[in-house]
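Running this now, will post back.
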Amino acid sequence: MNIDDQGGIFRCLLRVRENAGNDVMSDREFARRYAEDGEIPAPTGAWSLDTLKKAARALELDFDVQTSSSYEEILSEHRMGQPVLVRVDGAQLTLHTQGENDFRVTVLADMDELEMSLWCPLRNGAWELLPPVSRNRWEAIRALGITLLTPAVKR
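Update: finished.
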């Protein structure tokens, strides 16, 4: 299993886990925990909400997920303190891509009415805080917000 497969979703969940105050987990430890829960996804670069939920369980993160393509809804969730992942079209943000339908999953670092900042895991194991993305590019980058809901705020 390559932890960089699935558009960066695994590294994003590791980052969310660390942001919540947990110890850093190695790639090897994550792969071991994930493999204990059943089949390992093929390295296709594709991902699904089921993959995300399974990975969250392996990391002992008790989240449900809610998706939205609305900038305003994601801004509201961010302001309520919910961790949010944002799937983006990697080619539109000039990230290294694998094909014309490539995407990256990122962690929302900050957001306001005008722009958002995204933490992005890179395929080489590094990461970077991307330059701010303006609100008017939300649709162009085909953004999809994935709010990680804790049990107390599930809707």
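Strands lie at 64-68, 84-89, 103-111, 115-121, 127-129, 133-134, 144-149. More later if anyone needs it.
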